[in-house]
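Predict structure. Chain length: 93.
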Amino acid sequence: MANVSSKVWEALQEIRIPQGEISMALLSFNLGVEVGQIAFVVVVMALALVLKRVSPAVLAVLNTAGATGARTMAYAIGGVSAYWFLDRLSGFI
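Prediction complete.
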């Protein structure tokens, strides 16, 4: 497995995945991650739909350009994203 980095290869050996099943294990893992992401988006969209129907005034405030709520959410999302990026980047250094 020349294409797989040594750390990944060591991790796969450590959990004792047979060499012939590594491709299927990685494919299954990646598909599981994608299904989880889709499920998360579906839940967020459902919550947004409920919020839209229950309280249109709150949604209108969040959708207003330059609104404090929208700006706060954007900074919170950006802050978490930056933290995760730097955390993962430090693993490569």
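Summary: The chain has four helices and no strands.
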